[in-house]
Design a protein that fits this description.
Elements (H helix, E strand, L loop, with lengths): L15 H20 L3 E2 L5 E3 H8 L4 H6 L2 E3 L5 E4 L4 H10 L9 E9 L11 E10 L4 H17 L7 E6 L3 H17 L6 H9 L13 H5 L10 H16 L5 E2 L11 E8 L8 E7 L3 H4 L8 E7 H8 L12 E6 L1 H17 L5 E3 L6 H10 L4 E6 H6 L1 E6 L7 E4 L3 H10 L1
Parallel strand pairs: 1-5, 7-8, 12-13, 12-14
Antiparallel strand pairs: 2-4, 3-4, 5-6, 6-11, 7-9, 9-10, 10-11, 14-15, 15-16
Helix pairs in contact: 1-5, 5-9
Length: 425
């Protein structure tokens, strides 16, 4: 007996019953991104592995444990993208988008990480992200946070999430802070778990992001990054807070917020919720002013971006009435050879004249009774009946499937008015 092939664990099919919410969310995001003046960019899901090693960091969990990497027939080492920022920077450099311009870009698509699948965290997951290049002031930081807030409010989720902020300062500030962290955690090395002991020698800032509750008190007593920041970083952060206050965007300062990627600098932020358990980050982002030169540019270029986890956002939206109505509006029943032939012409005319109305034309034959059952299951509001008798008389039968109304007969010339009535509802 052959074994049934199933989807890869952590890589989910999006079924017809779910796709309406996805399409509605994607359209909503695109509408607001267009309104803010952002332009779409599309990049391939495969990149050279070196791109992510250089940008994310050789010793990060993503590169060491989570990337899907293989060697192709030419001997090139390739990886499915685990995130989108690095490849958008690569594309911007490759196609000369940065010089003399300040591009505002957005993109949506699947990312891939070999993590332990759980609610809100999958091995193939979808993100909608924005990236802005060439602006170094705190005003663009505020704009991106305001944009992310606008998107959440448009989804009806303003009250379900809160904004947390931190600043990582410049590379020089972080180097000084790193030395303080290493000294502090080295004194308490016996209290660290194995993962944190490894990070102590590779990336001690990531210890602050540990989810181990046994380390919570130790982390809370660690030296604070803000005490190591230079004046430029402090002023940038202070101006950002003033702009958010002016825009009436509430926030909390979280000194432990460091984000999971090595390229971040200065501002970092997350929109978090308690409604999704451990996977509480819905939107995350920040500045990455050094990444452009890190990936080969001879000229420095400031940059900032954020990413929305679409699966997590949709999990939150399940608690609301966000999902659109499923099914069609009209189901056309046909019985009789002449009726079936006539229906192909007539239904095509109806669809052209009423493009906003979802019309299913029955196929596969069967009695009126069996067709009515399928019409009812389709979710249609009405069934339009075309039999040989109706075709001969130039009429159409109308049966209401969701209202307590008697069946009626219309002239074919009157059907368009009925379709527009359904569409307006």
């Amino acid at each position: 007996m052959s074994v049934t092939i199933q989807a890869i664990r952590g890589m989910n099919d999006i079924l017809p019953e779910q796709i309406g919410a996805w399409q509605k969310l994607e359209a909503l995001l695109k509408r607001h991104l267009d309104q803010f003046g952002y332009e779409e960019i599309r990049c391939p899901v495969l990149e050279q592995t070196a791109l992510f090693k250089r940008s994310i960091g050789d010793v990060t969990d993503i590169v060491e444990k989570e990337m899907y990497t293989f060697t192709d027939r030419n001997g090139d080492q390739l990886s499915l993208r685990p995130e989108g920022t690095a490849q958008v920077v690569r594309a911007a450099l490759e196609h000369n988008l940065l010089y003399g311009q300040t591009p505002r870009l957005w993109y949506c698509g699947p990312m891939f990480r070999h993590e332990r699948p759980q609610k809100g965290r999958y091995r193939q997951f979808y993100q909608c992200s924005v990236e802005v290049f060439g602006i170094d002031g705190p005003d663009i930081d505020a704009e991106l946070i305001l944009l992310s807030h606008t998107l959440l409010k448009a989804c009806g989720l303003g009250a379900n999430v809160k904004l947390t902020l931190n600043t990582l300062g410049t590379a020089e500030s972080r180097a000084q802070y790193r030395d303080k962290l290493v000294a502090y955690f080295s004194e308490h090395q016996n209290s660290l778990d194995e993962d944190s002991k490894r990070r102590l020698t590779t990336n001690p800032l990531r210890i602050l992001d540990s989810k181990n509750p046994d380390l919570a008190e130790l982390i809370s007593n660690a030296p604070k990054l803000i005490d190591s920041l230079d004046e430029v970083s402090l002023n940038h952060f202070e101006q950002l807070k003033q702009l958010l206050d002016a825009a009436e965007v509430p926030y909390e300062i979280n000194p432990q917020l460091v984000r999971g990627l090595d390229y971040y600098s200065k501002t970092v932020f997350e929109w978090v919720t308690t409604d999704l358990g451990a996977q509480g980050t819905v939107i995350g982002g920040g500045r990455y002013d050094g990444l452009i030169t890190q990936l080969g540019s001879k000229q420095p270029c400031p940059a900032i971006g954020f990413s929305i986890g679409l699966e997590r956002l949709l999990l939150l939206l399940e608690q609301t009435d966000f999902a659109p109505k499923r099914g069609c509006d009209v189901y056309v029943l046909t019985v009789g050879e002449n009726a079936v032939k006539q229906a192909f012409k007539t239904v095509s005319q109806w669809r052209e004249a009423a493009p906003g109305v979802k019309i299913i034309q029955h196929c596969g034959g069967g009695s009126f009774k069996s067709q009515f059952k399928k019409a009812d299951k389709s979710g249609a509001q009405v069934a339009l009946i075309l039999g040989d008798e109706e075709v001969a008389k130039g009429t159409v039968g109308v049966k209401y499937l969701r209202e307590d109304k008697p069946q009626e007969t219309l002239q074919q010339s009157e059907v368009m008015d009925k379709l527009m009535e359904i569409w307006r509802k």
